[in-house]
């Protein structure tokens, strides 16, 4: 099987093939490696373009054929550079989408854990008991308010005398 068909048919590492799809971390690591490799290739092509441009200038009008060849190579390198730019954009988009999907999955998992925890907390609670408890609390607050009002009223000894 050729390398290209292995690539498109998912001929990855033995660990990945044995259990199906790679984990998000593995896929992100591979995408980052590919981005890094393409960035290095970009740098290489940019240096080659500069070199071919220097060769073309060097030959200038003295050796037109060599200058034209250098310019043709430069044009090929620029085309390759343009293709790499497009590929990098696609890989960046895919990496960002995968990161967002992974984040959403983690958030959803955590929300599920929180829902289970809330269910467990509320497991022993009965709405009737809660209503009774809230009524008791309200009654006790009313009693406390009456006591507070009674204490805070002035003794009123002077007010009770009638002239």
Automatic annotation (TrEMBL):
It comes from Geococcyx californianus (Greater roadrunner). It holds the Pfam family Snf7. It is a peripheral membrane protein. Belongs to the SNF7 family. Residues 14-24 have a biased composition (Low complexity). The keyword Transcription does not apply. Keywords: Coiled coil, Cytoplasm, Endosome, Membrane, Protein transport, Transport. InterPro entries: Snf7_fam. Its main location: cytoplasm. One of its GO terms (cellular component) is cytosol. One of its GO terms (biological process) is late endosome to vacuole transport via multivesicular body sorting pathway. This is CHM4C protein. Residues 1-25 are annotated as: Disordered. It is found in: Cytoplasm, Cytosol; Late endosome membrane.
